[in-house]
C-alpha cells in the first residue's frame, strides 16, 4: 500500500481510493464497459468531493440498505452485503459486550423485539421517545419500567452509523440483536432477512395494551392476538419458550400465590414446593411487587427447552405459561418440546423468522432513522 502523503483534501480521497484492493471480477467486467465505468466513476468522484462540503451526502443510499437493488423494496438475507458488509459483526460485538456487562440483557433484547413487532408491526416504533405529538410506546403500561435494552440498540446504531452512515434501519439492528442474544445464550441460529425500514410514528398507549398479550389473559385471548398477527397456536407455544431466559416481576404472578381468581387460595395447579419458594420470594405485600424471579429457575440464563419441562411439572411461573397445559393442542406441543430439544430449536427459529416479518416497511416506505429515538 502506498503511504505517500497527500497534498490536499481532494487528492487524499484519490489516494484512499487507490489503496482499496482491486476486485478482479469487477475489473474484467469493466474492460467491456469502459464508457459505463467512466460515467460511474465520475459520479462517485462528484459525490466524494461534494461530501467534503455537505456531511449529509453519502455514498450509501438513503432510500434503503443498499443491497443489489438499493431502496426499491428488496428484502433478503444479503441486503447489506455491499453497503454495510460488517453489519452483523458490529451487531454481534455490541450484543456480546452488553451481555458481558449485564447477563439479563439477552432476554431483554429478545423481549424488546417481540414488543416492537406485536404493536403495528416490526418498525422500531418502540424505540421512539415521546414528543409533543405522541407519547410513544415506551410509557405504555406493558412497557413502562419493564422493557429494557434501548441503550444497547442506541449504542449499536451509533457504531453502525460510523461504519455505514444513513444505511441500516434501527429495526433491522433490533432484529439482528434479538437473534444474537439468543445465540449468546446457547440458543439456535436462524437466517434474518433484512431491508426493513423504520416507522415514522408510534402507537398510542391504549393500542399497545390492546395488541400485546398479557400474562394474566386466558389462552384463547392470547391465541387470538397471535392470529391477528398472522401467527398460529403453534407459534404461541413456540414463542412462549422464550421464557426459558429472563425474569418476571412479582406482581405479574403474585395472585397465583395467595388469591387465585378471588378464591383466597393459591393456584391449585402450581407445584407445592414451588409455591412455598415463590411465597418467600414474593410475600403478600405491596413492597414485593417489583422484585424479580427467574422465569425458568433451572436454567436462568441458558436458552434451552427446560421451560417446557417446567410446565410438565406444573412449575410454570406465569398464568400464560402454565395455561399451555390446559389445552390438549398446546399441551401436545409442550410435551414434544420437553422431550425433543432439537425440535424446539428448529420450530423456534421458524417462528422467530415469521414474527420478525410482521407488518414490515420496505422500499420507499418509512425511513432509515439516523437516531433510533426520533424520526429524521
UniProtKB/TrEMBL annotation:
One Pfam family in the UniProt entry: peroxidase
Enzyme Commission number: 1.11.1.7
Chain ranges of the Plant heme peroxidase family profile domain: 74-376
GO molecular function: heme binding; lactoperoxidase activity; metal ion binding
UniProt entry tagged with the keyword Amino-acid biosynthesis: no
The keyword Mitochondrion is assigned to this record: no
Family membership noted in the UniProt record: Belongs to the peroxidase family. Classical plant (class III) peroxidase subfamily. Belongs to the peroxidase family. Ascorbate peroxidase subfamily.
Protein's recorded name: Peroxidase
Protein source organism: Acer yangbiense
